[in-house]
């Protein structure tokens, strides 16, 4: 990517991000907790990163608007339609991941 000019690189990165959002939208069965367990990020993280990027550029973009963009609908609607209750196994895996992450940071 170093051989690309800044505008082209930004366009490619933006296209890849839009494709990631489409992919997540096409796979609503993948729960945020699953993403957190496997990749240490979720749809809410993407929303927070959008808000942070906007803040860095002095652009007003609130968290609810960011979540609506990432989820493709208001978060409450998505949650009601697609979010499942986390299983005890998912919660245990999430806690183990968080503990391992803390141990890496501390050690």
UniProtKB/TrEMBL annotation:
Instruction: Name the source organism.
Output: Halomonas aquatica
Gene3D superfamilies linked:
SMc04008-like
The superkingdom listed in its UniProt entry is Bacteria
Q: Which InterPro entries match?
A: SMc04008-like_domain, SMc04008-like_sf
An example of a Pfam family matching this protein is DUF1244
Ranges of residues in domain SMc04008-like: 30-95
The identity of this protein, by name, is DUF1244 domain-containing protein
